[in-house]
From TrEMBL, chain A:
<dbReference type="Pfam" id="PF00392">
    <property type="entry name" value="GntR"/>
</dbReference>
<dbReference type="InterPro" id="IPR036390">
    <property type="entry name" value="WH_DNA-bd_sf"/>
</dbReference>
<dbReference type="GO" id="GO:0003677">
    <property type="term" value="F:DNA binding"/>
</dbReference>
<keyword id="KW-0805">Transcription regulation</keyword>
<keyword id="KW-0804">Transcription</keyword>
<keyword id="KW-0238">DNA-binding</keyword>
<dbReference type="InterPro" id="IPR036388">
    <property type="entry name" value="WH-like_DNA-bd_sf"/>
</dbReference>
Automatic annotation (TrEMBL), chain B:
<protein>
    <submittedName>
        <fullName>ABC transporter ATP-binding protein</fullName>
    </submittedName>
</protein>
<keyword id="KW-0813">Transport</keyword>
<dbReference type="InterPro" id="IPR003593">
    <property type="entry name" value="AAA+_ATPase"/>
</dbReference>
<dbReference type="InterPro" id="IPR027417">
    <property type="entry name" value="P-loop_NTPase"/>
</dbReference>
<dbReference type="InterPro" id="IPR017871">
    <property type="entry name" value="ABC_transporter-like_CS"/>
</dbReference>
<dbReference type="GO" id="GO:0005524">
    <property type="term" value="F:ATP binding"/>
</dbReference>
<keyword id="KW-0547">Nucleotide-binding</keyword>
From TrEMBL, chain C:
<keyword id="KW-1133">Transmembrane helix</keyword>
<feature type="transmembrane region" description="Helical">
    <location>
        <begin position="20"/>
        <end position="42"/>
    </location>
</feature>
<feature type="transmembrane region" description="Helical">
    <location>
        <begin position="118"/>
        <end position="142"/>
    </location>
</feature>
<keyword id="KW-0812">Transmembrane</keyword>
<feature type="transmembrane region" description="Helical">
    <location>
        <begin position="213"/>
        <end position="232"/>
    </location>
</feature>
<protein>
    <submittedName>
        <fullName>Uncharacterized protein</fullName>
    </submittedName>
</protein>
<feature type="transmembrane region" description="Helical">
    <location>
        <begin position="75"/>
        <end position="97"/>
    </location>
</feature>
């Protein structure tokens, strides 16, 4: 786990976002155990209270769950998992649309470019 | 909780502290920042009754400091405070002899954590390692509060990283920590509370996460506003 | 072991190396001195008797028989004792200042020990007294050894033998080696008082820096005035009302007063006024 945090957003928000990304990409699988608050703080080099706060918020949002005294786990709730994925995609698309719109490019041209770039990028990754 | 109320200190005719008040909670890391001048170290010295005050009051969990407090709160100054001709083992033995709160298991763990050799003489250690021994001797006490004076200054970057790691580890656990620094960059994400000091006064104290959340500002942003209005 | 005993042990052990060196040097110098003195005496005797034709009785009459006291008056014997005394006097100051000076300001640790700060003070003071006692004790062990060296090098006809008991009754040695338990208590009690006055004066300096030097000096002067007040009274008044034994009693009371005052003041400075 190596995350670079920016200094102006609350760290706990950035931690939650990091978790969402890991869930969306499948790095964190449903039902997988997650590190304790102390371990997380240590790995991310953040304040333990901040790690605590992030876990509390995620627990409330249903992203993670804790049974009795066992370590917390990633949720198995499909609906939540889907919504996380969707949320991240929507966020990325929003950002993209925002930047593209600001330079006035027709949507068809953009879509073609996006498709080309996306696919060549993927081949590049595989090669 | 450590409560500092209206702390005043004069050196000769110079007012170094002109009524400093702040609190530091258990389980939180409180950072006293002062960009220039004296005062920070004096505050820590005064909390430990190592220098007399010209006014004000200090309460540790509601009590004024006494000999018993030293099993509850400890201070790690910026220079090592052991006999330089002692080996690390001897220094640890000294602490074990005098403090009921000495935790040998944690001390051993810290030796491991810092990769220190027990048999070495304090005199022969590098600056970074000396700082680590200094930290070890304080951290291995089972105290509720730890005061550290400039734990990151004057040592190499890797030692700095290692020391920063201690703060997020179980070695600090749920204790209350007060550190002083003039350099915040390395540790912005580690601290809970910030006390900004200048000219012997507290200009502002705030929770760093709260300021990020409600105002979208980094600690340095706030410092800029406070120190360079 | 309680913390005071640990502190005392610590204070003693941190000066132990220099202390032992001083003892060994004392022994070597005194023994060497004894050999040199005895040999030169015998050389003189031989020269006078065999070259100048003096009789043994004439020589002893003229030069005196070799006795331990002749040696004890010389620099070979007194020199090392003076060095040890000077070292301890110096260490009365260093035992405090060493904790402030240097990169390792050990005074932080001492003041943050979970024990009354007076224990730090007492441990230092008692270790000074014990070190004096230690020096005197080993000197008492050295004396018969040196006496045997004398007997071994100088034939019986040339010696005026003395027992160790006789030697220690003599002159300044009788000051160092009390003859009775009462004397022991009086001498070392006075020593402890002097140490406590100096310690408190040092703590004045440590607490108030430049102003403290003045305060410390005034404090020391005041202590001296208190101690010699019976003498002063004698000078100012025409008559003196006390018998010698009563004067001694008064001195003891004044000494106790000064000691208690010093300890109280030292404790006050250490807990309320000291700055690391």
């Amino acid at each position: 786990m190596n995350v670079t945090f920016n200094k102006r957003d609350p760290v706990y928000v950035q931690v939650i976002r990091h978790f969402k990304e890991q869930i969306a990409t499948g790095t964190f699988e449903p039902g997988q155990e997650i590190p304790s608050r102390r371990e997380l703080a240590n790995r991310l080099k953040i304040n333990p209270n901040t790690a605590q706060r992030a876990y509390k918020e995620m627990e409330e949002a249903g992203l993670i769950y804790t049974e009795r005294n066992l370590p917390s786990k990633i949720t198995k709730d499909e609906k939540i998992l889907q919504s996380v994925r969707k949320e991240l995609i929507m966020e990325a698309v929003d950002n993209f649309v925002h930047s593209v719109r600001s330079i006035n490019v027709p949507v068809e041209e953009v879509l073609t470019l996006v498709k080309e770039k996306y696919e060549s990028g993927r081949e590049g990754d595989e090669a | 909780m450590i409560e500092v109320n209206d702390m005043k200190k004069k050196f000769g005719h110079k007012h170094v502290l002109k009524g400093v008040s702040f609190t530091a909670e258990k389980g939180e890391i409180t950072c006293i920042i002062g960009i220039n001048g004296v005062g920070k170290t004096t505050i820590l010295n005064a909390i430990m009754n190592l220098t007399p005050l010209n006014g004000g009051q200090i309460l540790i969990d509601g009590d004024t400091i006494s000999k018993h407090s030293y099993e509850k709160i400890t201070f790690i100054p910026d220079a090592i405070i052991m006999q330089p001709n002692m080996t690390i083992t001897e220094a640890m033995q000294f602490m074990a002899d005098f403090y009921d709160s000495w935790n040998q298991q944690r001390a051993t763990e810290l030796l491991d954590f810092f990769k220190l050799k027990e048999s070495e003489k304090i005199n022969n250690l590098s600056k970074g390692n000396r700082a680590k021994v200094n930290l070890l001797l304080g951290l291995a006490l089972d105290v509720d509060y730890l005061l550290m004076d400039e734990p990151f200054s004057g040592i190499d970057i890797f030692s700095r990283e290692q020391i920063a790691d201690v703060f997020t580890s179980h070695l600090v656990e749920d204790r209350g920590v007060i550190i002083t620094t003039h350099e915040i960059n390395d540790i912005e994400h580690l601290i809970d509370k910030v006390v900004l000091l200048d000219e012997g006064k507290v200009l502002k104290q705030f929770n760093s996460e709260e300021v990020r959340e409600t105002e979208g500002k980094s600690v340095v942003d706030v410092m800029r506003e406070v120190y360079q209005p | 072991m309680n913390r005071f005993v640990k502190l005392l042990n610590f204070e003693l052990s941190r000066f132990m190396k220099i202390y032992l060196v001083l003892m060994i040097v004392t022994f070597i110098v005194q023994i060497t001195g004894m050999i040199v003195t005895a040999n030169s005496y015998m050389a003189e005797a031989n020269k006078m008797i065999y070259e100048e034709g003096m009789s043994q009785a004439q020589f002893i009459e003229q030069y005196g028989a070799m006795s331990f006291l002749g040696f004890a008056r010389g620099l070979w014997f007194t020199g090392p004792i003076a060095v040890c005394a000077a070292a301890l006097l110096f260490y009365i100051f260093m035992i405090w200042y060493r904790d402030w000076f240097g990169k390792n300001t050990f005074i932080y640790r001492l003041l943050m020990l979970p024990t009354a700060r007076l224990n730090v003070y007492l441990a230092k003071a008692i270790s000074i007294v014990l070190m004096v006692l230690g020096f005197v004790s080993v000197q008492l062990i050295f004396l018969p050894l040196e006496n045997s060296v004398l007997k071994w090098l100088v034939p019986v006809d040339f010696r005026a033998d003395m027992t160790v008991g006789q030697i220690v009754k003599w002159d300044y040695l009788s000051m160092l080696v009390p003859q009775t338990f009462t004397e022991f208590i009086l001498y070392y009690g006075a020593g402890f008082m002097a140490v406590s006055v100096l310690f408190t004066a040092i703590l004045f300096e440590r607490s108030f820096k430049w102003k403290g030097i003045l305060l410390g000096s005034v404090y020391a002067a005041l202590s001296v005035v208190i101690m010699i007040s019976p003498l002063l009274a004698m000078n100012f008044m025409d008559q003196y009302y006390l018998y010698p034994l009563e004067t001694l009693g008064l001195e003891v009371v004044l000494g106790l007063l000064v000691t208690v005052m010093s300890l109280w003041m030292g404790n006050y400075l250490l807990t309320k006024k000291i700055t690391v």
